[in-house]
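Ops channel
N.P.: pipeline sanity check, posting one input/output pair.
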């Protein structure tokens, strides 16, 4: 590995390592959040079994509506007085390294996801379609959205990286765009507000250009040079999240910079393997059969990466590819589920980290929405069954104990996913034009 960074968490990991036995070939100089720091289990080749799942059981609409309302109620209760969601509280003495600026970015990104989720739930409730869900507290939801929007208007322009090493702010810029696009469609008659939102989207483009890796794409660590232009290696799932947000913004007429988009697409394509699993990051290109880079390790990433490349015109991501990876996610959901709620990143099989669980399912619902109408319900119902089965007693969803951000971001991802699984047109941004490939 080219990084000379001295791992900051070896002492914290020692207890876990002792319990699990000797490590198998750890990569030196990596952070605990990096799968290259974990051992790669040997796996013998096996015949590929049939992956297509059987038909899903019918789901009573009232059950889906009740689940959505419980999730919404959790977010209403969990919102902070300043309109945000999430905080650096509830530490577990084994945390992803983060500074003050990192926590600001986490809180803004979490708030953006919550605003997007509540906005889409409201749009689904207001739609005059058979699949609509009646919200139990629409006025409370409206006020929560307004408070969240005020927080984003105030804080999103202030987001920066914490220091030259920690570049978590890319998540706030990406999901900030996601929320801003939903905000843009919420009050279409307010022209000045829309102008302000469009300007803020363009500001996020500027930030993502500023914090783009020198080689293109986006990562969130620079363990090498610590330069003004990050020397980070791009991570496939970050590239995918940014490109998906770019597509949303382009759909409302706020097109991202062509060069920035093209470089992101090129870097994402560079991580793709022939079976449409994706390398965790470009730095692992010489370790394609490492556990995290195999299909079981790519289950959550492949959904996001396939979606991002498909909407940006990659003809290799066909309906058949989308279906195969949706089949994999459903049939082999256990590979992701065994990592869910584990406190150490990448400690599970195939070096899966818990925080890919609801991330992956959200982008899976977007992939299902790209399929022909006749094929969507099959996958939407399967994904709905999975999501309903994991809702907590308090109405939340969470997949990784992450300070005090995990319940709101997990709940937001789950609500966005359920909204897109309703048997009705998904409440996506109004499309003014279809973005073409940046190539």
């Amino acid at each position: 590995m080219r990084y000379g960074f001295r791992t900051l968490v070896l002492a914290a990991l020692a207890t876990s390592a002792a319990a699990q036995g000797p490590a198998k070939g750890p990569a030196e100089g990596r952070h605990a959040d990096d799968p290259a720091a974990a051992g790669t289990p040997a796996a013998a080749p096996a015949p590929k079994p049939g992956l297509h799942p059987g038909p899903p059981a019918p789901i009573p609409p009232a059950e889906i509506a009740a689940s959505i309302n419980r999730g919404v109620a959790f977010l209403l209760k969990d919102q902070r007085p300043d309109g945000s969601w999430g905080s650096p509280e509830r530490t577990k003495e084994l945390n992803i390294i983060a500074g003050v600026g990192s926590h600001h970015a986490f809180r803004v990104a979490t708030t953006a996801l919550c605003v997007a989720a509540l906005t889409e739930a409201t749009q689904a409730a207001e739609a005059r379609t058979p699949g609509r869900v009646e919200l139990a507290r629409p006025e409370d939801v409206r006020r929560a959205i307004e408070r969240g929007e005020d927080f984003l208007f105030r804080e999103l322009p202030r987001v920066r990286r914490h220091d030259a090493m920690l570049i978590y702010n890319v998540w706030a810029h990406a999901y900030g765009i996601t929320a801003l696009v939903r905000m843009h469609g919420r009050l279409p008659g307010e022209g000045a507000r829309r102008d302000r939102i469009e300007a803020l989207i363009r500001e996020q483009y500027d930030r993502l250009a500023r914090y783009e890796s020198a080689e293109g794409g986006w990562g969130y660590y620079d363990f090498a040079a610590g330069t003004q232009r990050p020397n980070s290696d791009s991570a496939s799932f970050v590239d995918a999240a940014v490109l998906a947000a770019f597509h949303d913004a382009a759909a409302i007429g706020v097109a991202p910079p062509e060069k920035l988009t093209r470089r992101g697409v090129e870097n994402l394509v560079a991580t793709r393997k022939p079976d449409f699993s994706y390398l965790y990051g470009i730095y692992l290109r010489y370790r394609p059969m490492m556990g995290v880079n195999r299909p079981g390790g790519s289950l959550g990433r492949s959904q996001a990466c396939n979606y991002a490349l498909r909407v940006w015109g990659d003809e290799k991501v066909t309906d058949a590819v989308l279906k195969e990876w949706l089949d994999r996610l459903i049939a082999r959901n256990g590979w992701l589920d065994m990592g869910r709620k584990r406190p150490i990143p990448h400690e599970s099989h195939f070096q899966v980290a818990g925080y890919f669980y609801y991330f992956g399912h959200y982008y899976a619902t977007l992939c299902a929405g790209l399929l022909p109408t006749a094929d969507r319900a099959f996958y939407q119902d399967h994904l709905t069954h999975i999501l309903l089965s994991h809702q907590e007693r308090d109405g939340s969803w969470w997949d990784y104990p992450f300070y005090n951000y995990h319940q709101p971001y997990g709940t937001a991802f789950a609500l966005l996913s359920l909204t897109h699984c309703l048997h009705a047109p998904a409440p996506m941004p109004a499309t003014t034009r279809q973005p073409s490939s940046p190539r």
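N.P.: looks fine end to end. Confidence is low (pLDDT under 50) at residues 1-30, 40-45, 430-435.
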